[in-house]
């Protein structure tokens, strides 16, 4: 039972890390798109 909980915890941590990376990548892409469109308007 304990080993299963540890494995689930590690999987959860890994999923959170992947999710955080995805959010960061999306945020950077959106920010870059906004700044480039602002430059285009100016």
What is the topology?
Elements: H1 2-41
Report on the architecture of this protein.
This protein starts with a helix and ends with a helix. With 42 residues, it is mainly alpha-helical. The protein has one helix at residues 2-41. The chain contains one helix and no strands.
Report the C-alpha radius of gyration, rounded.
18 Å
- The SS-based structural class is mainly alpha
The residue fraction in helices comes out at over 70%
The general outline is: rod-shaped
Mean pLDDT: 84
Say how many strands there are. Answer: 0
Distance between the termini: 61 Å
Taking the sheet with the most strands, its summary is: none
Return the string of H and E elements: H
Task: Describe the structure concisely for a colleague.
The chain is an all-alpha fold and 42 residues long.
Quick tags:
42 residues, mainly alpha, 1 helix
